[in-house]
Structure formats: C-alpha cells, structure tokens
Amino acid sequence: MTDEQLLRYSRHILLNEIGVDGQDRLLAAHALVIGAGGLGSPVALYLGSAGVGHITLVDNDVVDATNLQRQIAHSLAKVGVNKAHSARQSMAAINPEVRVTCITKRADAALLDQLVATADVVIDCCDNFATRHAVNAACVQHHKPLVSGAAIRFDGQITVYDSRDSTSPCYACVFPPESTFEETRCATMGVFAPLVGIIGSMQAAEALKLLSGAGKPLTGRLQMLDGRSMEWNELRIPRNPVCPVCSATH
Prior knowledge:
This protein is α/β, with parallel strands linked by helices. It contains 10 helices and 8 strands.
C-alpha cells in the first residue's frame, strides 16, 4: 500500500476489524454489481470510495430524467448516457485509482456465467425477478456470495446468500422460480427517494464486510424496512432442502 493509499483509507485502517490487512483485501478484490440505478448508485460509489480494486458494473439502460430523483450516481448532464458509464464517471471523480469495467449488455445467464466466475462478491441491484434468479443461479454454480437488495414504494429488504455456507439459503429458497410474483416497477408504483440509498448503502456495507473479513454478514437473515415508520423486521431464512437451484450442490 502506498503512502497516498495509507492516507486515503486511513479511517478504514484505524478500525481494528479492518486494519491494513482488511484494506489490502479490498484493494485486491473484484466486486460485480448488477444494475447501476437506484440501488446500484450508492453501492458503486461506496465500493469505489472504499477502494475495492476492480468493480464491474452491468447495466444496459440509459439515464432518464425520472431517475434523478433517487439515482445519485447520475446527473442531468448524463441523461441519455448508459448508466454503467455514467456511474463510472462519478466513481472516478471520487477515486480515480479504482478499475471500473462497464458491461452495457443485459445480464443474461450466459453473460453472468462468465462474470460471476471471476468475482469475489456479487451485489444484485436489479429490478426484476428473472434477472435475480439468473444472478442467483450463477452465484450458486460458482460458489460466490450474493448481496441481495430490493426497494419499492416505502418498502425495502436486504440479505446475503452465500453458497459457500452449507446452511445458507439461496434466493430461490426464499422466492421459488416456479412461483408467480407480480413485477412491481418504480415507473408504475413509485419509490421513496432515500429508501434506495438506505438499502443500497447497506448492500455496500455487506459487500465490504465480506471482502475485508470484518463483522458478521447477513447470511440467513432477511431484514425488511418499512420506510413509513422506519421500523425494521428480521426473518431467519433456512435453506430449502429441496430447492431446485442449490439443494443438489450440498
């Protein structure tokens, strides 16, 4: 670690749970972020500012004026720009030494199979069940920890799925792929602007904990936030022994 890095990351290094060794692990890590919108914005900015050495952003969408109410990595000047590229510019303004790879394709199963294999942690910031299941399947296949978050209206949730842990559920254990869920989009349902910041910041925190070795991750614990009353509820979620995605791997 250079003298400049020791100064830049000094507030992390002062933490006994992180220290020089933990910061070195962050500098050497590769994080894969699926989605650079409401949740992906704080995730990308915090991972970049914290010094995660390589961050891959996946998003095929472009910045729209309606995104600016909550997607803090973007600005009015970036309307029409791909969200991954826009977020990379914002990250570079904070920490230019972080390597950011932008993928402007939709995150399908084939692409995820390639990307997840090289990542140390995957952060799911997308907004649809099909992509979430594809991300989960790739993480189970490659035994990569997955930080999952969601936010709509005033309701948010976050958890960690880690197939390296034999007791950890996967996303399909909680939301079976054969079940029918109503897709709820911000464009039709709305979303409280700070809610994505709260959940996205927590996703960044969980990812940094996993990468640095600090603290205890949210594995097996689903936390749900009611933004109207700012009340949290937590559910313990066991692994489904007959899960069609992860049961065969244990």
